[in-house]
Specification:
Strand order of the largest sheet: 29-30-31-32-36
Oligomer: single chain
CATH topology of one domain: Methylamine Dehydrogenase, Chain H
Largest sheet: 5 strands, mixed
Number of helices: 10
Shape: flat
Distance between the termini: 109 Å
CATH superfamily of one domain: YVTN repeat-like/Quinoprotein amine dehydrogenase
């Protein structure tokens, strides 16, 4: 269903039924495992459904509408049992009492009151008044205790017997959900030291807190790697629930991140990133390229484990991260951002990533970064301040033993700074031998620098617009550049001359990488297209269309058989090199075809025509099928043999023969064989059966004109034959009369 059309949804407690409500005022029941809609009915509401809830038996469904009414639906008998009126404004929360014998429904609407509905009487029997803002969740502790949370920064504990408030718990943040901790279980690590009601709150600060209801005290606050804000932010939590079967608490944030915590310790187990925003860069990470690190138009980095989609969110930068690069071993990587800094990160054996160093020194945002290739010895950055800087990596960061002792990030200092261009530097690259640095700028120039002292070695001129990317070849003394003029160029490092130009992109070429061990180039454009180029032939051999916006991120793994791309359309795509697989499949098909052709030759030689016909049809060889038909017709009583063989073919084989004979019939040399097969099909197949054949209409339309032409030609041939026969008879009579008149 269209995302924009769904106003609410609910999954039944038995995990069998998914119900969605749409803005078209329809309710739909889904078999969610097969993605099939099994039932659709009118919601009867006069405005969209805002909230839904199942009872504990999954047989009753309550829908709260924007029309201030609540409907109760019997999911088995499929009818509306109740229409509850009396709410004020949008009914944004409905919950059944867990004790089904009570037949009670709880709801809350825009007047911030909690209403209790007796379904046996069909009316509201009580109103719980205490909140001063929207009520966000209801949790039942036992049959007679209710905990409610609200955006008025309080939680309330209610006695359902007296229908009075037992306690008000000030939470000091807008609460979106309150979850009760189970009575059984060891929650001592969460500050639970005695029996009694405890609950977890999730809200605007993005932190889980554990509260003791009896004392209204916060007994545990979850430690987080970011500074909490009083007002709502992208880290605020919007949903929270307990999954008893897995002993987990699950939260959802404003950024659509789904996080799984151990319920007894609140230690993070798994995190799924739901939305990436505009992706500015992506790189493979880990010794076996098991992870990817992603810069997503935010100050946080995301590290995804490819096998499980588990995501780590890394905090450190204060403004948008612009670029990334990874050292050769894959354990350390560098990020740079608009906050004028770079940060060095290290991954441990268990996959956990920490920041080990940071460097400040640029006057503007740092837009490009490149790591040394041979050893983890230095980093090169370039900035909008038109400078390039070389930063040495101290041994304390590269040594595993010493790196483990680092408690806070070390400060890096640039050893060399050089003004490189007159405009923004968009790209920087380090050569495979760590001796050269290349830069590309908006001033349409690429430059080559010495790594040791950052002295200028040469300038590459030729692009008509700004250069977006520079890359060294892994095998040759060649530099590749891509530009906003839509071209890629290869340059010689010795004489700085342009060796080749690749034209084919209709938009700016943002990134390029060498693939296939340096024999091919892969480029990404601002139009969302990827192009694969063969360097030797200057040819674009493949265009890949999987993104809808600018592709900023492009990187290949160490084995050179996978590529990852990232785009402004928020999508990250993994590509696998299937060249060898396709070649092997093509070779296997060729070998199979040769074997079948040999088998076909043997069948024809042995005059086993039925098998020969079937094999020729499976090979999709119209001419070979024609040769078999001709061979059958040459036999004694060939017409009868042809009929016997055609009749014994399967329906799909007859359909194939029908498409073949349309082509045969266009040629007068083969029309006799085509007409013989047509005659057999018309003779032995009923008209209704023929009409069921795939493509019968097009076949008849193609056969008719040529068949008429063949018969006209036969008619002319017959007339000519009769005329020739008549002339021959007259000539013989004339010869005979002359012989009689000749004297002996």
């Amino acid at each position: 269903e269209d995302e924009e059309d769904v106003s609410s949804f609910i999954l039944s407690p038995d995990d069998e039924i998914l119900v969605t409500g749409s803005r078209a005022l329809l309710l739909k029941q889904w078999n969610w495992r097969e993605s099939k809609c099994v039932r659709t009915w009118k919601a009867v509401h006069t405005a969209p459904v805002a909230s839904m809830a199942f009872d504990s038996t999954s047989t009753l469904l309550a829908t709260g509408g924007c029309d201030s009414t609540i409907k109760i639906w019997d999911m088995i008998k499929q009818y509306c049992t109740h229409n509850l009126r009396g709410s004020s404004g949008v009914v944004h929360l409905v919950e059944f009492h867990p004790d089904t014998s009570r037949l009670q429904l709880f709801s809350s609407s825009m007047d911030y009151k909690i209403r209790i509905w007796d379904l046996s009487a069909g009316k509201c029997v009580a109103v719980l008044d205490g909140h001063f803002s929207a009520v966000t969740s209801l949790a039942f502790a036992d049959g007679n205790t209710l905990v409610s949370s609200g955006r008025d920064k309080i939680c309330m504990v209610w006695d359902l017997e007296t229908r009075e408030s037992k306690r008000t718990v000030p939470v000091y943040e807008s609460v979106e959900a309150a979850v009760l901790l189970p009575e059984k279980g060891d929650f001592s690590q969460l500050g639970v030291k005695k029996q009694g009601l405890h609950f977890v709150t999730a809200g605007s600060k993005g932190i889980l807190k554990v509260w003791e209801a009896a004392t209204a005290a916060c007994v545990y606050t979850q430690p987080v790697p970011f500074k909490s804000k009083e007002e709502a932010s992208e880290r605020s939590l919007t949903q929270c629930m307990l999954v008893p079967e897995r002993n987990e608490i699950v939260t959802v944030s404003v950024e659509h991140n789904i996080v799984f915590y151990d319920a007894q310790t609140l230690q993070l187990r798994k995190q799924l990133a739901g939305y990436n925003d505009e992706v500015l860069d992506v790189k493979f990470l880990g010794p076996g390229d098991s992870h990817i690190v992603v810069a997503t138009n935010s100050p946080q980095l995301k590290v995804f484990e490819l096998a499980t989609s588990h995501c780590q969110i890394l905090y450190g930068h204060t403004e948008t991260i612009l670029a990334l690069d990874v050292f050769r071993k894959g354990l350390m990587f560098v990020s740079c951002a608009k906050d004028k800094s770079l940060r060095v990160w290290r991954m441990s054996k268990d996959g956990r990533v920490v920041c080990v160093a940071q460097g400040l020194g640029h006057a503007h945002g740092v837009g490009a970064v490149s790591c040394s290739r041979l050893k983890e010895s230095f980093v090169v950055t370039s900035s909008q301040d038109c400078t390039i800087k070389i930063w040495n990596i101290p041994e304390s960061l590269t040594s595993k033993a010493k790196a483990a002792l680092i408690s806070s990030p070390e400060n890096l200092h640039a050893k060399v700074t050089e003004r490189g261009h007159n405009k923004d530097i968009n790209s920087v690259a380090v050569s495979p031998n760590d001796k050269l640095i290349a830069t590309g700028s908006q001033d349409r120039l690429a430059k080559l620098w010495s790594c040791s002292d950052c002295s200028l070695l040469g300038v590459f001129t030729g692009h008509k617009r700004g250069i977006w990317c520079v890359q060294f070849s892994p095998v040759d003394q060649i530099l590749a550049t891509s530009s906003a003029d839509g071209t890629l160029k290869l340059w010689g490092l010795r004489d700085f001359s342009c060796l080749k130009t690749f034209e084919g992109h209709d938009a700016s070429v943002l990134k390029i990488i060498f693939v296939s061990r340096g024999t091919q180039l892969l480029s990404s454009g601002s139009d969302g297209l990827l192009k694969l180029w063969t360097i030797k032939t200057n040819e674009c051999v493949k265009t890949l269309d999987a993104h809808e916006d600018k592709i900023w991120g492009l990187h290949s793994n160490k084995q050179d058989d996978m590529v990852v791309t990232a785009s402004s359309d928020s999508c990250i795509t993994l590509w696998k090199d299937v060249t060898e697989i396709e070649e092997k499949e093509a070779q296997a098909k060729q070998e199979e075809r040769i074997i079948k052709e040999q088998e076909l030759s043997n069948l024809l030689h042995e005059k086993r025509y039925l098998k020969a016909l079937g094999l020729a049809i499976s090979l999709d060889r119209p001419h070979t099928v024609l040769m078999v038909v001709k061979a059958i017709l040459k036999e004694t009583d060939g017409r009868r043999h042809l009929e016997e063989n055609i009749v014994r073919l399967r329906k799909d084989q007859k359909e194939a023969v029908l498409t073949f004979l349309v082509t045969w019939n266009t040629n007068s040399r083969n029309c006799h064989e085509a007409q013989a097969v047509i005659e057999t099909l018309l003779k032995h197949e009923a008209p209704d059966s023929l009409l069921q054949y795939a493509g019968i209409k097009a076949a008849v339309e193609s056969l008719l004109p040529y068949t008429e032409r063949h018969f006209q030609r036969l008619s002319r041939l017959l007339q000519a034959s009769m005329f020739i026969d008549f002339m021959w008879q007259n000539m013989r009579l004339a010869d005979a009369s002359r012989q009689e008149e000749t004297p002996l």
